[in-house]
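agent> step 3/5: call structure_predict on target 'VTC domain protein' (Actinomyces massiliensis F0489).
agent> reason: downstream docking stage needs a structural representation; sequence fetched in step 2, passing through unchanged.
tool.input:
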Amino acid sequence: MPAAAPTTTALDTERLTATTLEDLNASAGLLTRIDRKYLVASDTAQGVIDALAERALVLDIDGRRCFSYASTYFDTPELGSYFQAAHKRRRRFKIRTRSYLDSGLTFLEVKTRGPRGATIKQRMDYRAADADHLTPEGLGFIADCLAPLSGSVRDARRVARSLKPVMSTTYRRTTLHLPDDGARATIDTDLTWTAFASGEDGEGEERGSGTRATRRGAPRPAGPLAVVETKNPARCSPTDRYLWASGHRPSRISKYATGMAVLHPELPANKWHRLLTRELGSTARAA
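tool.output (status=ok):
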């Protein structure tokens, strides 16, 4: 079961008009999109909200505007997904479960890279109780998603069967919709990473087609930082332009890859060296 994210003071979004989840999904699903991520201080994240107050809507569900998330990431024994990201492979994938802790919903998601760097995300409904392992149905879904990437159904099934949980994250998210720009922005705070045991040391419990893993170690926090992610159909959004004008440029941060580098310093992490030694150096890396 996914762990609850730590509580914190939500960002101030009182000046923003509310939007519903139904309206957000209908007009700003953006399952194929161009993403940009920025790692900024919390006050900069608040500045984004204030600057967009006249044109942005904020997701509001039953009076709540900040929501707790948990994700479990899966990789091959040789960490193929991590190394594809580390070496900037064009045809790469990321596989995770995502749990919306406030609503109890969980999805299994497969993200791949499409033409011109666009992110393609496919997902299926999943049981919260299965969030830390892959069911037979989940393995079949993953294989179907990876087949076009690998060029072989057999190879896709082999990769799917080899997957194991390697890391989990928790964080809190505020979601903005910019309807006039066809864009979204998310702001994540209280990000933490936690390593998983492989299940090969006797701590795991066999179940179905995979191994149920056991968390090990304390969560590693990203500190008083926020991850701002813009999700645009093509052109840059007002969120990007505000951050650029404030001196911020897109960051290489990936919740999965950066988290693995934080949790496992022995892994090659040249792509994230500046991020690990500067922005995260005094918090997550030293935890």
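agent> step 4/5: record observation. Helices lie at 21-28, 42-51, 80-86, 136-150, 153-162, 238-245, 255-263, 273-279.
agent> proceeding.
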